[in-house]
Amino acid sequence: MSDSNSPLMTPFVKMHGLGNDFVVIDARDRAFQPDKALAAAIADRRLGIGFDQMLVMRPPRDPRADIFMSIYNADGGEVEACGNGTRCVARRIMAESGRSRVIVETVAGLLDAHAAPEGQVAVDMGYVRTDWSEIPLKESCDTLHVPLELGPLSDPVAGNVGNPHATFFVNDINEIELSKLGPVLEHHPIFPQRANIGVVEVIDRNHARLRVWERGVGETKACGTGACAAAVALARRNLTEREVTIDLLGGSLELSWRPDGHIIMTGPAASSFVGAFDVVELMRR
Description:
This protein is of the alpha+beta class. About 20% of the residues lie in helices and about 40% in strands. The protein folds into two domains: about 10-120 and about 270-285, Diaminopimelate Epimerase, Chain A, domain 1, CATH 3.10.310.10; about 130-265, Diaminopimelate Epimerase, Chain A, domain 1. The protein has helices at about 35-45, 85-95, 180-185, 225-235, 280-285; strands at about 10-15, 20-25, 55-60, 65-75, 80, 100-105, 110-115, 120-125, 150, 155, 155-160, 165-170, 195-205, 205-215, 220, 245-250, 250-255, 260-265, 270-280. A hairpin with a 2-residue loop joins strand 1 (about 10-15) and strand 2.
């Protein structure tokens, strides 16, 4: 591979939060504005680098923020929020600045992040929206009981944690064919902006298990906003307390839905490797 400092090369850091993996690119001093085709090419796990989401760090727009984070899904589409990605970018900015608290700006708003025990990062993911028009849904309905079913899945709770989610309750998450049901539900007409689809299994009042089909990505090992949406859905249905541990395929997150409606997500963020790529060469493949 060529010199990463060459103007022809774009440096990146590969990071992950519980196996939800990211390509992180610093565009604060060196412009990087990918179109959908380039983002999808980088996401290709055989011909590109591979990621669930690509996170591009830019100068903040809001003077209160430390960084602006753009988020691209594996299909190349730009999205509003990413919980595990926020922890990763926050950890990088904390290491760079030497501070234990930073503010990450996204198109969904400002996210306050701080260092937590055992090397973890806690992020205030903001106010969880539960009105049908804020998620959004196609038409007015009770978001605690959305009239939607497919196969063994029915009666989900809908919510928005910077992006739309539908959470279904099941007896055993391993019995659900999410690879078949997820794509259909993601594109259901009731979701004008598509939706992330979660299936959650209650273990006890403080513990649950979750799998998530991510909009524009597919099933991932972890989904931070999906875990937030599931925690709120569980509490709204009075199936768990407002503080709950949620186990995902890649590990566990701690969620706390505060009385003010904000949800705090705590979990790990790790770097895997660094590298660089040539945009022109990548697009030739």
